[in-house]
Specification:
The structure holds two protein chains of two kinds. Chain A is globular, with a radius of gyration of 21 Å. In chain A, strands 11-10-9-12-8-1-6-7-13 form a nine-stranded mixed sheet, with helices on both faces. Chain A has a two-stranded antiparallel sheet with strand order 2-5. In chain A, strands 3-4 form a two-stranded antiparallel ribbon. By secondary structure, chain A is an alpha/beta fold. Chain A is built from six helices and 15 strands. In chain A, helix 2 crosses helix 5 (190-196) and helix 3 (95-109) crosses helix 4 (128-136). In chain B, strand 1, helix 1 (16-32) and strand 2 (36-41) form a beta-alpha-beta unit. The termini of chain B are far apart. Chain B is an alpha/beta fold. The model of chain B has no long low-confidence stretch (mean pLDDT 95). Chain B contains nine helices and 15 strands. In chain B, strands 5-8-4-1-2-3-9 form a seven-stranded parallel sheet, with helices on both faces. The chains are: A alpha/beta, B alpha/beta. Chains A and B meet through helix 3, helix 4, strand 9, strand 10 and strand 11 of A and helix 3, helix 4, strand 5, strand 6 and strand 7 of B. The complex binds flavin-adenine dinucleotide (FAD) and adenosine monophosphate (AMP). Residues 209-211, 235-238, 251-254, 266-268, 270, 272-273, 276, 286-289, 292, 305-307 of chain B line the site of flavin-adenine dinucleotide. Adenosine monophosphate (AMP) binds at residues 6-8, 36, 38-39, 63-66, 92, 95, 98, 116-117, 119-120, 123-129 of chain A.
Amino acid sequence: MKILVCISNVPDTTTKIKFADGNTSIDTAGIQWVINPWDELSLTRALELKDDQANGVKSVTVAHVGPASSEPTIRKALAIGADDAIRINASASDAYYTAFQLAEVIRKEGFDMIICGIESSDFNGSAVGGMVAEFLGIPSVSSVSGIRFEGGSPLLTREIDGGRETVKVTAPFVAIVQKGIAKEPRIASMRGIMTARTKPVKVYEPVAADSLTTVAGFEKPAPRAACRYIDPENPAQLIDLLQNEAKVI
Amino acid sequence: MSVLVYTENWDGLFKKQSFELVSYASAVAGMMNTKVTALSIGKVDAEELGKLGNWGAEKIINAVSDELTVFDSQAYTGIIADIARAEGSKVIIFSNNISGKALAPRLSVRLKAGIGAGVSKLPLSIEPFTVYKRTYSGNAFAHLVINSDVKILTLAQNSFDLTEKPTGAVPETINVSIDSSPVRTVVTDRVQQTGKILLTDAEIVVSGGRGMKSPDNWGPLVELASLLNAATACSRPVSDEGWRPHEEHTGQTGKMIAPNLYIAVGISGATQHLAGVSSSKYIVAINNDKDAPIFEAAQYGIVGDALKILPKLVDAVKGLKK
Ligand SMILES: Cc1cc2nc3c(=O)[nH]c(=O)nc-3n(C[C@H](O)[C@H](O)[C@H](O)COP(=O)(O)OP(=O)(O)OC[C@H]3O[C@@H](n4cnc5c(N)ncnc54)[C@H](O)[C@@H]3O)c2cc1C
Ligand SMILES: Nc1ncnc2c1ncn2[C@@H]1O[C@H](COP(=O)(O)O)[C@@H](O)[C@H]1O
């Protein structure tokens, strides 16, 4: 079994987001770029599955659609333990375009299990994983909170409203993962960092594809009204305000 | 031309979010001078289906098939795509929930339709078709232009008010075949809780953080929640420690929720936590540190010891109920 983990390169989650060019693009000055948190957890789980030889995972590859400036993020994934990487040299400005590029490469290289995160922390599209599956005409299982092997074939746990199901699908398939997939992201070891430099990163040029969306501009959320403080000796006043002022209880 | 809205059903029943979705679809259709068709997959009885007509659905379709016993995103996508084509739908609307997130991207490719995911308002304009969508995990909103002929939107839960608009539409049931996308998902096991308010459905949520000190202190928090008909939630360290079940963890790496009221008890208000709750209409913070960042997100705050304040809140709510 060959596993592919799709990774997106996003601003660190504590970044104060600022915009430039009349609020049409993000101001990248001073941003710390990281692997999208879900993708880091996907990679961790993929490597755990590979560690157990009984599972028969041959390799874990990461794929990223992005310019050369994303290389440090790809190297980080290699340092954590991915065997090799693929970069598609294009700007991932639209989910449809990005998924098209990924699908094209997956068709060429062939993978059995493709893992995507439920959402990127920058675009919040929740789209690329399902789109890749549909371009390839293969099954997708979403809201996946667990992947394990039983008798050599993968079993997925997926969240449903108020519960969970265990699901089997025929490979190749796309797993779209969320909370529960791995506990803590695996951290690169010193040796991992050393060997990452020599691991292969294959660069593909993009194929012609359409974009269906464009961002016309950004805005910051409307500032919230200042907090109104209630006397800690008289919390009942809070209940009164919630009932008669906010009218939410 | 029409606006198609996918109204999921849960064992044959709709939820309030289904009606919100139809209300939203109806308002979008109004902007485009067209009508709303609601589609539900899997057997729903006529009376329940008819309820969709109270909120502006002018056509109600129930697609059923014996072959559909599990949720298979490919098979469902095939059904929705066929109906969207037959209806000439230009806009297709899903909830931004588990099934919406599973189906919208597949349908997008099938129909070559751009997606606006997690919209929380009506489109800003129809020409060009521009939507207001959450980005950077709630730290910003984008004006996203969808350039394709057909557009797909997923609506954030609890972001649009119910607007009554009875149409008297008579539901029609159609048998669909899923030959083109055979079901390839096999469910081998299922566990489901019953009788509890789901966190993602709740209009009020009471949530505890590390400031609760110990799992043994949750009694009054749970009691407050139950008196308010609320769901309980927690911060990530609390579920990591096993103080509370994982389903309750809210935030960027947990559940994203948008209730009318979120009461954060002993939660500092880290950006990753706020990313999952900042769309709540009202936030109440109870924290003994007056400088905790949660107070910047809150409209009402109490600076003090949660363990002393919670029992008093419980008493105050009990007082109301009398
Ligand atoms: C990539 C990433 C993703 C993350 N995702 C999430 C996520 O999804 N959700 C999440 O919650 N966190 C997430 N975190 C963790 C987050 O950064 C914070 O560490 C976490 O939210 C803190 O939880 P807390 O507020 O319960 O605890 P603390 O930060 O320890 O805060 C406890 C608060 O309780 C107050 N307090 C103490 N005693 C009392 C008392 N007696 N009465 C009243 N108040 C009291 C303190 O003043 C303090 O403000 C993530 C972190 C990373 C790096
Ligand atoms: N540029 C990209 N390159 C590779 N994978 C991506 C890229 N963007 C998104 N993905 C994958 O798609 C998931 C969902 O992203 P999104 O649809 O943007 O919310 C991410 O968690 C990644 O697994």
